[in-house]
Amino acid sequence: MSEERGRHPDAGGAAKPAMRESLIAAAFQLFLERGFEQTTIDDIVTLAGVGRRSFFRYFPSKEDVVFPDHERCLTDMTEFLQQQSPDGDPVAHVCDAARLVLRMYAENPAFSVQRYRLTKKVPGLRAHELSVVWRYERTLAEHLRARYAARPDGTLRADVIAASVVAAHNHALRSWLRSGGRGDAISDVDHALDHVRDTWSEDPAGRGVDGQDEEDVIVLISRRKAPMWRVIRGIEAALDEA
Predict the structure, then answer these.
(1) Which CATH class is domain 15-65?
(2) Which end of the chain is more exposed for a tag (fewer CB within 10 A), N or C?
């Protein structure tokens, strides 16, 4: 993750990343002023002061300039998962991998919020975004399928967990984006992913993503015919002592 943010994989030197950022800035300026559909690639390269060939060196289409960092993030996610120990908790691994996506959004909140609002207005961009989300989910699922290959339900389990991770992450992320980037996105996503890990992890230590121990278990002994209010009072007293 030490590679410069926004740098094209084939870029060499500072000029190419700067050109890429100029294209992104020009595109969003025009999208906001004219609308996405009304803006052409020629408009973007003219404002950025570069040629059409330069645009396509970095972005296959106009839609891709709206999501400039997802390819890099997908590569980072794949590399991250490949580096994980086979003895570790696979659910924890995919939850941590999802945090790479959050980091990408949180690095530039203003841009992320701007993109979210633009995407909501343009159906074509929404479809493009969903295709990217599916690629993230597939990457997580492939890692889990390999880890659960020996289980009869391995493929089903992998796909369900991957979908749960993406759903939990996106629920918290989109709430943050809807708020205009206010609040603690990292804490909200951690909370959502904790829920996934608590549900699916087989970690015998029962530890959550934040390393907290499994909750204590309280055992209450009561007479069979004791009234329910007495049982509840006994539980409350035990909790107070804990």
Answers:
(1) mainly alpha
(2) C
CATH of domain 69-200: 1.10.357.10
C-beta separation of 48 from 23 below 8 A: yes
Q: Please, is 168 exposed, middle or buried when counting C-beta atoms within 10 Å of its C-beta (0-12, 13-18, 19+)?
A: buried
CB-based contact 67:128 (threshold 8 Å): yes
- The span from the CA of 104 to the CA of 81, in Å, is 17
How many Å apart are CA 242 and CA 227, to the nearest integer?
23
pTM of the model: 0.74
Domain ranges of the chain: 15-65, 69-200, 216-242
Buried b or exposed e, range 98-118, using 16+ CB within 10 angstroms? bbbbbbbbbeeeebbbbbbeb
